[in-house]
Amino acid sequence: GQNIDQPTEMTATEGAIVQINCTYQTSGFNGLFWYQQHAGEAPTFLSYNVLDGLEEKGRFSSFLSRSKGYSYLLLKELQMKDSASYLCRTDKLIFGTGTRLQVFP
Amino acid sequence: GAGVSQSPSNKVTEKGKDVELRCDPISGHTALYWYRQSLGQGLEFLIYFQGNSAPDKSGLPSDRFSAERTGGSVSTLTIQRTQQEDSAVYLCASSLAGDRGLRLSEKLFFGSGTQLSVL
């Protein structure tokens, strides 16, 4: 089966950098997605990794290590609007429980 | 349409009643997924359709839940004899493909969801 672990909650200050981790055990790896979900809204796509290494996209970057079953989402220059849940998905059907990030002024 | 459309956006029903939730996926998307999300919780997988293949129903919590997808497009999720624990947001998503593992073509596009409240 699949098992995906993320921290439940994180807090950070506006302008700071935060790293949200995702560890997984999977019988077959094909790729990993990160989604962002603001309260009361549907999840939206943030990033996709299939090869080891860092994928940078503006203020957001996502890292993958397949050998370690580990990924992280790196958010730089945090803004208040980044307060949301961040969901990791490495199975066709299953999401991690999500990490609720609160950004304070 | 431009995005995944779900209706109704809100549904209040009495315990024991049946409800139907509708999902219109993005045109051309072959894969369709139903999830539900209780307040403050993660996404719980319910059912998955891919093209003409038999759906993956492994996430349906009980036989009161069923779903169909007509003509490879619109899907209806039916909950019979609703219970209070069925109260949640029901999210539908579609993707361009759904049979290649977890490729970029399987990026999910979500609808806005149906907020179901069972009194």
Structural notes for this entry:
The complex is a heterodimer of chains A (105) and B (119). With 105 residues, chain A is an all-beta fold. Helix content of chain A is 0%, strand content 54%. Chain A is built from no helices and ten strands. Chain A has strands at 3-5, 9-13, 18-25, 32-37, 44-49, 53-57, 60-65, 70-75, 84-89, 99-104. In chain A, the strands form two sheets. Chain A has a five-stranded antiparallel β-sheet with strand order 1-3-8-7-6, with no helix packed on it. A five-stranded mixed β-sheet of chain A has the order 2-10-9-4-5, with no helix packed on it. The radius of gyration of chain A is 13 Å and the shape is globular. Chain A starts with a strand and ends with a strand. By secondary structure, chain B is an all-beta fold. In chain B, 0% of the residues lie in helices and 44% in strands. Chain B has strands at 5-7, 10-13, 19-24, 31-37, 44-50, 65-69, 75-79, 88-95, 109-110, 114-118. In chain B, strands 2, 4, 5, 8, 9 and 10 form a six-stranded mixed β-sheet that branches. Chain A binds chain B through residues 28, 30-33, 35, 41-45, 48, 50, 87, 89-98, and chain B through 33, 35, 41-43, 45, 48, 56, 58-59, 91, 98, 100-104, 106-113.
Give the topology, please.
The complex is a heterodimer of chains A (105) and B (119).
Chain A: E1 3-5, E2 9-13, E3 18-25, E4 32-37, E5 44-49, E6 53-57, E7 60-65, E8 70-75, E9 84-89, E10 99-104
Parallel strand pairs in A: 2-10
Antiparallel strand pairs in A: 1-3, 3-8, 4-5, 4-9, 6-7, 7-8, 9-10
Chain B: E1 5-7, E2 10-13, E3 19-24, E4 31-37, E5 44-50, E6 65-69, E7 75-79, E8 88-95, E9 109-110, E10 114-118
Parallel strand pairs in B: 2-10
Antiparallel strand pairs in B: 1-3, 3-7, 4-5, 4-8, 6-7, 8-9, 8-10
